[in-house]
Amino acid sequence: MGLLDNFEKGLERAVNGAFAKTFRSGLQPVEITAALKREIDTKAAVVSRDRVLVPNMFSVRMSPADHDRMAGLGPALIDELTDLVQKHAASQRFQFAGGISIALQADPGLTEGIVQVDSRNVKGQVAWTPVLDVGGTRHPILKGHTVIGRGSEADVTLDDSGASRRHAEVQWDGTRARVRDLGSTNGTQLNGAPVKEAVLEPDSVITIGSTRIVFRVLAQASAPAPGGRPDPATQRHDMGGFWGPGE
């Protein structure tokens, strides 16, 4: 279950004064999501009849106390935010010029419960990086075959008694991925169903024993346009394949 799954989806309430009065414990992740959605909708620019361009680099500013709380959630929060931004853009048929980038920043000028988003559009080449997310830890997938299992010889080692030493493998050819069970004792599941071999789509969930493994494809914005290089602290994440024509 994602970090934001416990919150009402599509929440679009105000994120400044009204929110600060309602949530005395400080900023909540769902409020950041709502602010990012509004920023996208506000900055959407019609380039042509079939092309509406939106920002792809976001700086999310909040009070130092809120920033410490959000930073404590780790990189999984950025993954969740990026995924929801991408899905919102896809639902509105918006397009990006480069990889999505979200940076959380502490702003001493803001009080708890207040969030502000700055954004810009930076065009750049995209480097696709497939990873397996196990409990918030990302394991890069090797080109060819990446073995998952309990044994020390596995590329991704699981501390799970329900996993065989060489339980399953993920095959990656540079553009597509497949998962294949390696004759394990307890079997492998893909999105809740038993599987022997199947295509892996982004955000698919592989279950081995009691371990939940999420397959992600991270789109990193490489070689941005001159003057458009993002801050080194910025983290870049999944795009899910929604790119404008000619990008």
UniProtKB/TrEMBL annotation:
<dbReference type="Pfam" id="PF12401">
    <property type="entry name" value="FhaA_N"/>
</dbReference>
<dbReference type="InterPro" id="IPR050923">
    <property type="entry name" value="Cell_Proc_Reg/RNA_Proc"/>
</dbReference>
<dbReference type="InterPro" id="IPR008984">
    <property type="entry name" value="SMAD_FHA_dom_sf"/>
</dbReference>
<dbReference type="Pfam" id="PF00498">
    <property type="entry name" value="FHA"/>
</dbReference>
<keyword id="KW-0597">Phosphoprotein</keyword>
<dbReference type="InterPro" id="IPR022128">
    <property type="entry name" value="FhaA_N"/>
</dbReference>
<feature type="domain" description="FHA">
    <location>
        <begin position="146"/>
        <end position="195"/>
    </location>
</feature>
<dbReference type="InterPro" id="IPR042287">
    <property type="entry name" value="FhaA_N_sf"/>
</dbReference>
<feature type="region of interest" description="Disordered">
    <location>
        <begin position="222"/>
        <end position="247"/>
    </location>
</feature>
<dbReference type="InterPro" id="IPR000253">
    <property type="entry name" value="FHA_dom"/>
</dbReference>
<protein>
    <recommendedName>
        <fullName>FHA domain-containing protein</fullName>
    </recommendedName>
</protein>
